[in-house]
Amino acid sequence: MFFFWIDWMLLFNVFIYIFNREQSGHSLKSSIRYTNSIDRRDNKILPNQGGFLKNTVEFAGLGGDVRFFKADSDYQYTRTFFDYFVNSF
Description:
5-stranded antiparallel sheet, mainly beta, elongated
């Protein structure tokens, strides 16, 4: 799946120190994200066995003032022991 985002980030959070807000300012991010997933679990909500793998790649810098490349991966493996114990890594 391909996604395209445009975000305008305003820093009005009261929990951020005033010095950090003044230094950061506003920013505009446009990015493209690609996600690939393989799901071999027997149940997506409460699995008893199987695995799940999701890879995400995001590239920002097509417009706006924020530029970066980010790669992320998630993995889950689930197995049932002795018909009672479900272990998930």
